[in-house]
Design goal:
Elements: E1 9-10, H1 14-23, E2 25-29, E3 32-38, E4 46-51, H2 58-77, E5 86-92, H3 95-98, H4 101-116
Helix pairs in contact: 2-4
Length: 122
């Protein structure tokens, strides 16, 4: 099940969301929280996005989700190489819709790194 480089897939099944909640590694940096669950099956990274209602109305939540999606794709295609295979839940509060792009990217990058790096390694 190969795909073009730089592609991520969506998470659609409830079993993955349950596993993320119970077994996933979390990292929060700035306005972004990333939960990661490793998968060695060789499939591309699978990503879901969550922006709660406290963030604002539908327009604000959709803007935050679009910004998160663009940020994850930029990190996936970036110089550090593609994201490790696995399932990711990227969630954010209201600040993700309005904070400067550089701040969002920095927080997202650090959260992705921290969630995918096992404890005790750098």
């Amino acid at each position: 099940m190969s795909s073009p480089p730089g592609r991520t897939w969506r998470i659609r099944d409830q079993r993955t969301f349950t596993a993320l909640r119970t077994e996933g590694r979390r990292a929060r940096r700035g306005p972004v929280t990333v939960t990661y669950l490793a998968d060695d099956s060789g499939t591309p990274p699978r990503v879901a996005y969550a922006v709660g209602r406290k963030a604002g109305g539908a327009v604000v939540r959709n803007r935050a989700r679009r910004r998160l999606r663009a940020g994850v794709l930029e990190h996936h295609r970036g110089p550090q190489g593609p994201l490790p295979a696995g399932a990711y839940l990227v969630s954010a509060g209201h600040a993700a819709a309005t904070c400067p792009w550089s701040e969002l990217q920095q927080g997202l990058g650090r959260a992705l790194h921290d969630a995918t790096t096992p404890k005790g390694t750098s």
